[in-house]
């Protein structure tokens, strides 16, 4: 390969990297996600995070209630389900705030212990959430269960596409509530 071609390719690669770095710095150095996405959550104050999580949860529950077209006799069960989910979200928000306020672990062992503790807490929370979902789910008709399943899968996602399968281009799926 001729020397001028190698030099041109190297210059193009360096220029592309410089443009990307400049854009990342202009965004405040947050290179881990799209602007306006979840990347900014780590920079939020705990009160802001709690408020944003609460608003998002309310929106999801309102959409779910509308999609299910609940009968009057199903409304009390939905309200209990909604209250359970709200209290779970508040506990999670408080846990996140406490974790942020705590001194970060200094050693690999301390980090692993902290991750293990968080895993146990999440597991317990998931068990409680499952019981709440099972109780509400039992009150639904077969058609409503189909709607609930589809809506519940979307609850963890932001948008319809996201990172699925091998990437956003292929339209595959990473699994329920992901992407």
UniProtKB/TrEMBL annotation:
InterPro entries: LTXXQ
Keyword Disulfide bond: no
One Pfam family matching this protein: LTXXQ
Region spans: Disordered: 155-179
Ranges of Gly residues composition bias in the record: 164-179
Protein name: Zinc resistance-associated protein
Annotated signal peptide: 1-26
Domain of life where this protein originates: Bacteria
Keywords: Signal
Presence of the UniProt keyword Signal in the record: yes
Protein species of origin: Thauera aminoaromatica S2
GO cellular component: periplasmic space
